[in-house]
Write a structure and sequence with these properties.
- This protein is mainly α and 638 residues long.
- Helices cover 79% and strands 0% of the residues.
- The protein has helices at residues 4-50, 57-80, 96-124, 138-141, 144-166, 169-192, 195-203, 205-222, 227-239, 245-259, 267-279, 283-295, 301-317, 320-337, 342-353, 363-371, 378-384, 386-406, 418-443, 449-467, 472-505, 508-519, 523-540, 543-560, 565-579, 587-596, 600-623, 626-634.
- The termini are far apart.
């Protein structure tokens, strides 16, 4: 006979699950419609500007607020589906009982965070100001913050109810964690009311803020809390040292909302959408055929084809994971058939796919440009990424050629007739034209980088229709997946703004700069230290959060030493891109291993010589700025 408490727990769990599914199903069509309409509006804006010669301010304002809603509603869905980035380093190495304890800590603190966000959104409803052009009520626009906060709470209540069903002891753990959290908040409030304590904090605000910010963030990071939530809570804790609690809570939602109120962020979802459409458009096979023409005479021709195809497809999709999946999925059966070394094939696919994160168009440079407040223009960064991206690819080609020659892999000696060559080129040309349209349009001043992202969506969609590889159903799925992928990054940006606000408020970048300059005031030494730091950070943290956390800290330091902002952007992306191929967070490595079926441990050894050559490339990029800056300067963009 089943215990009554267990029946009650399952009923509660089922109720929360049903509520979560209702929210999820309700938000899905909204996200699809929003991103679809945004795509139409951005193309309409380009049409108005360049065909009708009458820019549309209405569509600009509407697009900006639709982006905010897309990001925050999408983030809500990501909480329900547990799709936000996290780093469960400790969780994978401890007992199940201990895992439950850490998960409960995450749940209780995240519900607390969600409550703050929801309450802040309610306060925001009192904002009766109106937008400049469309005269929309700002309070109603900010109501999305309430939805976000409520869904955060609901999603973690679902997780909590599932834990209760799993083990009744988790009820007592939750009560204990909640009491401890309450006591900590009460104790902190008491300390803040003490004049002596506040005097000490004010006298040592930079050091204490630095300690609180990073200790809190890394604590939540280690226990597996979503990185965005960890950023938000750590930022709020740091700000509370200098701000009244009620004032801080009331402005949290406004900060999250305002952080995405930037027209430049529109390029992110559009380039992601264009890349996802290209992934479904039969582009990979045509690019592989073209890459075979380039790599067939080099030792390890199939590996060389993989590398070149990854560079081409990565630049079109802007995603290392997409490149590794699409190209690796086609090359792997061919490599197995020809008895290629599969651990090395896996390493080659993973290490070369990151070239597309530097070769434009790429969303990473857009994020960096916006973090720097436009200190590095998107157009200049796009051009600056070509040579470093090619260096990453060439590094893999060199190691693959040496390995193939050493192990006597055959080289194709067959000639190809002109008709075959032209057929292959003709098949790949429409896809390759996207690069020329987007980059050529930006450099030529035909359209902005944001408008170029809309052109990329329209072009890739037309190409997929031409190839007859897309249906209305698949397009709906693409729009939804693109909205979710965009929301993960946009919510990270929103929460990192809270952290950036706290760092600026406490002069943390200045404190870090003083620490580094005390060590050395030589910019080459500082750049070496930064390279080492970023390579280590990349091992443990994904590209987007690392960029959002460390750019505001390091950017003022290096620019103060005379380092070009565009050059430093390339250095950061090159460093962090290598991190997506290294465990424990190496998502691209996991994807590549999943495609070939190889164990990660067997792939590490062949990766090491590739990393060595890529690090040599990093040194060249760091100390010879001309490699990054020659193209932007040639086109007058830097």
């Amino acid at each position: 006979m089943m215990d009554g408490n267990v029946i009650e727990e399952k009923r509660d769990s089922s109720l929360f699950d049903k509520f979560g599914k209702i929210i999820n199903q309700s938000l899905k069509p909204i996200l699809v419609f929003t991103l679809g309409l945004m795509s139409v509006l951005i193309v309409y804006q380009v049409f108005c500007r360049y065909i009708l010669n009458s820019p549309s301010n209405v569509s600009s304002e509407l697009l900006t607020y639709m982006l905010i809603w897309l990001g925050l509603l999408g983030a809500s869905v990501c909480f329900l589906q547990a799709k936000h980035l996290n780093l469960p380093i400790i969780l994978d190495k401890i007992s199940e009982d201990s895992q439950d304890t850490l998960v409960i800590i995450t749940i209780v603190t995240s519900i607390f965070f969600g409550g703050i966000v929801a309450y802040s959104g309610v306060i925001g409803l009192d904002n009766q100001s109106f937008t400049p052009i469309l005269k929309m009520n700002q309070g109603l626009l900010q109501s999305v913050i309430i939805i976000l906060g409520v869904v955060i709470c609901v999603s973690y209540l679902i997780k909590l109810s599932n834990l209760f069903t799993k083990n009744s002891k988790n009820r007592f753990k939750t009560i204990a964690v909640s009491i401890i959290l309450g006591l900590l908040i009460f104790g902190y409030s008491s300390l803040k009311s003490n004049d002596f304590t506040m005097g000490y904090i004010e006298d040592n605000i930079e050091l204490i803020s630095f300690f609180v910010l990073f200790m809190a963030f890394f604590f939540f990071l280690l226990i597996g809390t979503p990185i965005a939530v960890g950023l938000g809570i750590a930022g709020l804790m740091t700000l509370s040292l200098q701000m009244n609690i009620s004032e801080l809570v009331s402005t949290t939602g406004e900060t999250l909302f305002a952080s995405l109120n930037n027209f430049g962020f529109l390029a992110l979802p559009f380039f992601i959408l264009a890349g996802n459409i290209m992934n479904q458009g039969g582009i990979a096979r045509r690019l592989i055929n073209f890459a075979m023409l380039i790599g067939r005479r080099i030792p390890g021709s199939l590996w060389q084809t993989n590398i070149v195809a990854n560079m081409l497809f990565g630049s079109l999709s802007g995603s290392a994971i997409a490149a590794a999946t699409a190209i690796g999925g086609i090359i792997t059966p061919m490599a197995k058939e020809k008895n290629y070394d599969m651990p090395f094939s896996t390493a080659v696919n993973a290490a070369s796919s990151i070239a597309g994160m530097l070769i434009p168009p790429t969303g990473v440079f857009i994020v960096y440009s916006l973090i720097t407040g436009g200190g590095a223009s998107i157009a200049a960064l796009f051009l600056a990424g070509y040579v470093p991206g090619i260096i990453i690819g060439l590094s893999v080609m060199i190691v693959a050629a040496i390995y193939a020659k050493k192990n006597n892999y055959p080289v194709s000696k067959a000639s190809i007739d002109l008709n075959s060559f032209l057929n292959v080129l003709w098949g790949a040309l429409p896809s390759l034209m996207l690069i020329f349209v987007v980059i050529g349009g930006i450099i030529g001043g035909v359209f902005t980088a944001i408008e170029a992202s809309g052109i990329a969506v329209a072009y890739s969609l037309l190409l997929s229709v031409f190839y007859k590889t897309i249906t209305l159903r698949s397009l709906t799925k693409i729009l939804y997946d693109s909205a979710i992928s965009s929301a993960v990054i946009l919510f990270l940006i929103a929460c990192s703004s809270v952290m950036s606000w706290s760092m600026t408020f406490a002069f943390i970048p200045d404190t870090v700069a003083e620490m580094l300059i005390r060590f050395s005031d030589n910019k080459y030494v500082i750049l070496a230290l930064i390279n080492i730091t970023l390579l280590i950070v990349g091992v443990f943290m994904d590209m987007s959060p690392a960029l959002l956390i460390f750019t505001p800290i390091l950017y003022p330091i290096v620019t103060g030493l005379g380092v070009d902002p565009v050059h430093f952007g390339v250095i950061m992306v090159y460093n962090l891109s290598m991190g997506v191929v290294t465990p424990p967070v190496g998502t691209v490595l996991f994807v590549s291993c999943g495609i070939t079926g190889e164990k990660i441990t067997s792939v590490i050894k062949p990766l090491l010589p590739i990393f060595l050559v890529q690090i040599i490339g990093l040194i060249l990029i760091t100390y010879f700025p001309v490699l990054s800056l020659a193209l932007p300067r040639f086109f007058g963009l830097n």
